[in-house]
Amino acid sequence: xxxxxxxxxxxxxxxxxxxxxxxxxxxxxxxxxxxxxxxxxxxxxxxxxxxxxxxxxxxxxxxxxxxxxxxxxxxxxxxxxxxxxxxxxxxxxxxxxxxxxxxxxxxxxxxxxxxxxxxxxxxxxxxxxxxxxxxxxxxxxxxxxxxxxxxxxxxxxxxxxxxxxxxxxxxxxxxxxxxxxxxxxxxxxxxxxxxxxxxxxxxxxxxxxxxxxxxxxxxxxxxxxxxxxxxxxxxxxxxxxxxxxxxxxxxxxxxxxxxxxxxxxxxxxxxxxxxxxxxxxxxxxxxxxxxxxxxxxxxxxxxxxxxx
Length: 308
Prior knowledge:
Layout: E1 3-9, E2 24-25, E3 28-29, H1 30-40, E4 46-50, H2 54-60, E5 67-70, H3 79-90, E6 96-101, H4 109-116, E7 122-127, E8 130-131, E9 135-138, H5 142-147, H6 153-162, E10 166-170, H7 183-195, E11 206-207, E12 211-213, H8 215-227, H9 230-237, H10 241-255, E13 260-262, E14 272-274, H11 276-304
Parallel strand pairs: 1-4, 1-6, 4-5, 7-10
Antiparallel strand pairs: 2-3, 6-9, 7-8, 7-9, 11-12, 13-14
Helix pairs in contact: 8-9
C-alpha cells in the first residue's frame, strides 16, 4: 500500500514575523523536519504546497525528493485551498495520504508508523484526548474533499465528508499538538525539541565489494518510476541529468543487471521506466528498510527506554 503526504507551506507567516518553513529547530528547518519525519517512515511521494516565497522554499528543499506544487493565490486563500491543490496532485498516485501544516514539525516517526497501522477513511492522532497532526486520509475520500466547500475549515470538512469512518489513535506524542503561529509558540517548540528523547536514525546500504543501493539510489529509482523519465526525476531531485545517469550506470554495473529501460528521445524526449529487476530490487529494499526500522525501534526501546 502506497502512502503519500501533503504538507501545506503556502502562508505568509504574518503572525510569526519570519518565514516559518525555513526557521530552524535544532540543526534543520521546520519544513526539513516534517519531510524527514515522513521519509523515515517510508512515506512517498511527498507533496509540498508552496506560495509565499515559493521559489526560495523550493530551492531550500531541493534534493529531498519532494514535489512542489505552487498556490499562486496564496495571499487570498485558506489552508483548505492549498490542501486541495496537494490532494488534486497526489490523489491518483497513492492509496492514502497524510496531511499536515508545515508549522507542526515535532510529531515523531513512531506516530506516523502507528497511524499507518490503522484502517479507516480518516485516521487522527490524539494526545490525552486532543486531536492533532498529521491526519491520514484514504484516497477514496480525496475527491470529496477536493470538491467540498471551504466553509468551516479543513477539520470540519473532513468530518462532514467522511461521516463515521474516522479512527482516533492515541499516541504518547505531545508534538502532534504543538504548532508555531507566534514567536512565543516557536520558543516553546525549540524548548520541546531540546528536551526530546534520543531516537534511532537508520540508513541502509546494500553492499558487495562496492555499494549496490542506498537511500539516494532508491530515491532516484522511486522518482524515475514516479515521473516516467530520468529527466523528470532530475528536476524533482534537483540534480543534473549526467549525475543521474552516472548513478544509474554505476548501480547497474555493480548489480550486473539493468535497472532502467531506456526509450529513445534523448534528454528532452522519450521516456524511461524501471525494469522488472529494478522494480523487484526497489520493492525488496523498501520492505527490508521498513523491517530494519521496526527492529531498530524495538531494540532502541529496550536499550534506551528510560534514557534522556
